[in-house]
Amino acid sequence: GIGVGDVKIAPDMETMAEWLAAGEVDLYFDSPYPAMIVSDKSGAEPILRRWKNGDAEYHTVFFARADSGLASVTDLKGHTIGLEEAVSTSGFMLTVAHLAQAGLNPTEKGDLEDGVASDQVGYIFTDDDENTMQWVLSKKISAGATDNQNYMEIPEETRSQLVILGETDKIARQLVVARPGLDPAQLDTIKSLLVNLDQTEEGPAILERNVTAKFDEFPEGAEAALAQMRTMYQLTQQKP
To answer: With pLDDT > 70 as the criterion, what percentage of the chain qualifies?
Structure first.
């Protein structure tokens, strides 16, 4: 029964959370970490997966120079690792949660000159996955972390100079988040429309324009999927 919809682009996550809480935005699309932050601030709930660029899931890859002497994630104690940015799912949440779950005490460092204790894994933000790669290759940092898709796009000549230290669990590539208080019947209709969009006449063109293969339910069930994400999210909020 809705013929026209508006698209609003928020300047930051705080604004998006305010819009969702106030009912100014009904649906929000993002990767799991920012989606969890916005959900936490607004009371909104993830309802579906979005297959961005054709991928339902992704994960983080830890890497170092092949001649670094490092062979596993546990070898990173006392070393500094480069991460993309503080709101990245693969470049922050998955990485820090994995290190914390392994008992490796991930600790943020503001400068490359900051010392790293022997019982810590220091991490510093590089602002870009390409910077992370260059900092590892130039030995500014001992290791880096990026998503598996980005890692496989590294030219083979460069990848031959690297070693994979470990990989995290997989997580949904993106989420569809619905505002709190949305009418349950309308929410069910929206979910059905999105899930079946690739089967409609106009759906494939819509999905292609939005770099999306399809939308679907969480295979393990929404409750289990959200519990996994919330556990990771909470681990990042407890960082030193």
So the answer is: 99
